[in-house]
Predict the 3D structure of the following.
Amino acid sequence: MTNSTSPNWSPDNLKNLFVELTRIRGMLKKCIDQGTSSPTPETESLSLPETTSSSSLNQLCHLFNISPFERDILLLCLGMELDPDFSDICAQVSPYQTYPTFALAVAAFPRADFRFVSSRSPLLGWQLVQVGEGLSFTQSPLRIDHRILCYLLGEPEIDAKLSGLIRPISTDVAVLAPSHQHLANQISTAWLQTSSSASLPIFQLCGADITSKQSIAAVACQQFDCNLMQMSAEFLPTSPDECHHLLQRWHREAILTNCVLLLDCDTISPADPLRAATLAQFIEGINSLLIVSTQERLRQRQRPLLTHDVPPLTHQEQLNLWQTHLGANAGELNGDVNAIVSQFNLSTATIQAACLHVNNQGNGEEKEALKTQIWNFCRSQARPHLDDLAQRMESSATWEDLVLPEREKRILQEIATHLRHRSQVYQDWGFAKKGGRGLGISALFHGQSGTGKTLAAEVLAREFRLDLYRIDLSATVSKYIGETEKNLRRIFDAAETGGAVLLFDEADAIFGKRSEVKDSHDRHANVEVAYLLQRMEAYQGLAILTTNLKDSLDQAFSRRIRFMVQFPFPDTQARAEIWQRAFPPQTPTEDIAFDKLAKLNVSGGNIRNIALNAAFLAADGRKAVRMSHLVQASQREYLKIGRSLTDSEIKGWI
């Protein structure tokens, strides 16, 4: 690095550069005066004045093992950028050439080293100096690379060809949780032990939370006294030649800035062969410190990856972080923090951001408002990215909207009880210490379409102020072996942070009765089911399966689900209740006969559709909702479901 803690470093560095340029100018003029192509002993006496060892020039020569002759060539090129007289001086040494060349350097400088012409020489190999077009190599113009020019001038600028690809990550990280600090210690210790070795270790951090992996990498770099840069693997060029040039640029930048690269591969699919090949080329070819961030483990053919799984923070680690960063608000929110930790699996950075937000807003806030504020903040921060696999549903339904037999209502209330007291039972009473299996709250809702299964999930999500995600299992299941588990893994990994309610619709698409295993596809279908059940059992939120065909489910699977709730087709009394709740209080109605409407043999979902369509018909006629509107809406709903509305069903409506 060229920057120094000394406030006088920058002016001293520039002074040193101009002292060096004066020396170069002197050697060039000596060459002109003597009219010779070989430097004299007097010329050699002008070489290498005393300069501070911390100057950018000395650091650059040390980093790239630059010889005295190459040092003078570099200064000659630097003089062309900083001193307008250098072009005239060059023309006097080599007529008709107003620019530096290798031939000019040989004529003017002592200790000429013809190894400079090799592509492996420091100046050319590291592209510190660029060679232009010319009649011959020795007569071709030489130009200092812009990144090296900035380095020598002490300007902290990233290579322009990398600036759009990499970004610096601050290593000024607060204390990590113990489990993550242990990983950072392992990485920095391994670097210290192999710093003099030709084979540098490559670490792979596997986990869903990129911020935790960034923090671990940052602390490891802090302990190793180096900087950290991050690059997305999506930016890697797929052309092998372009990837090779990128590696060269990065190697030089890593040396100049003393930095480690954190390569973010979280969004790279192993199923993309071109992208996987590019990634392999980059990892195999890199010759500097590298940390790879992935969600799923990468396999390399030649260079082994030292893989570490990055687990979520433990319950106690999260509690400690909340207590530390809440400050004066810790006592006020103590009980609520337990509920937050029980519900949300947040990273260190997210907890710090939440505490900062609350502490900035907390003064003068009512306690209840503060509790709501911090919960909503955590909920938004923990919201998973599942747009391509799940649909987030707004939950506005309440317990009063559910029309079910008392037995089924009690089971739903029992599910709510498990959610409410999960922290107390699992953490305070020690059940979590017996293992994670079976701690997930899972439920199977079975019944005909429109009987309230989705509505019940909405009620539970609203009760606990949680996001509700609907996953269509029939769309999630893939014909390609391994793709279904990958989709399910993405869903659960993303949802773990926020403990969202997961509603798996059409469960019979994957949970059919197990058939005799006849081929690999049958065998893998059973693996998919086992994987889904395993993740449901360990999921910290509520996972709900819905099906219209309970009898098609294997009993062995049913035993692994904690709650089974039947949603019966509503009888006449239940339909009357549903009709009465179908219209919001502000809806204008006139002479609605709910007892007659209840004779329609339809489910609650159909009833809500009919009520909504009738409201639109009434609004279009600028009237209150009447039975005549409900007749029209019922006819359309029956047509949609493939049934005929009989006269006996609507007898006496109008």
In short: Residues 43-47, 513-517 have pLDDT under 50 and may be disordered. The chain has five domains: 11-41+48-157, 162-309, 315-382, 399-566, 572-641.
